[in-house]
Structure formats: C-alpha cells, structure tokens
Amino acid sequence: MQNLIITLQAQGQGNMMQTITFMGLIFIVFYFFMVRPQQKKLKQQKKYVEELKKGDLVVTTGGIHGKVESLDGGTASSIIISSEGSRLRIEKSAISSELSANLNKA
Questions:
Q1: d(CA 80, CA 96)
Q2: How many CA atoms lie within 13 A of 76 on its CB side?
C-alpha cells in the first residue's frame, strides 16, 4: 500500500513539472506572436509621428484624410491639417497612418 502511495506521488510531481513546462512554453509563444509585434508596431508609430513634416498626407484615427500644414499649432503636441478646404487642429497622437506612403506602395 505504501509503495502505491509513493508511486502515485512521484507521478503527480512528474505531471506537475510537465504542466509548468507546458505553461511556460505557451507564455513564450504568446510573447513572440502577440506582445512583441505589437510593441514593434507602437514603436514605429511613435517614430513616424515624431518625424512628421509639413506637406505629409495623413489619416487620423477618426478617418479624416488631410495634409499637414503646420506642426506648431499652439502646443508641441498638436498639428494643423487641411482637409477639403478646412483647417483642423489635432493632437499628434490622433495620427493613424501616413497616406502618402500607402499611395506610393500601391
């Protein structure tokens, strides 16, 4: 009876180690396929917004397409874009993507 208990305990410890190893592998795969690419994308977006210049065609997160007119719209974090004859002051963080790069790619 005691041998049976010792055998069952040894099997339980082996299963626990396999479970911990499997969970660790899942975490590593999750990091490389989900977290790391998102961090890379955010870094590229931040770099793009910092390098905006007058004349760039942009798209805002709200879907407004426009051309950058001025980068010094009162505060350091806002820009002025022109779109369909109107001028809008928006935050730099509202810039979603560069339209001119997408047009050149196509």
A1: 15
A2: 1
pTM: 0.59
| Residue 42 CA to its chain's centroid (Å) | 4
| Residue of 25, 73, 29 lying closest to 52 (CA atoms) | 73
Q: Which two tokens stand for residue 79?
A: 């820009």
Query: Residue 84: left (phi > 0), alpha (psi -120 to 50), or beta?
Result: left
Whether the CB-CB separation of 88 and 64 falls below 8 Å is answered with yes
- For residue 95, give the DSSP letter: E
Report whether 68 contacts 55 (CB < 8 A): yes
Q: Are 58 and 48 in contact (CB under 8 A)?
A: no
pLDDT in tens, 39-60: 998 898 888 888 888 888 999 8
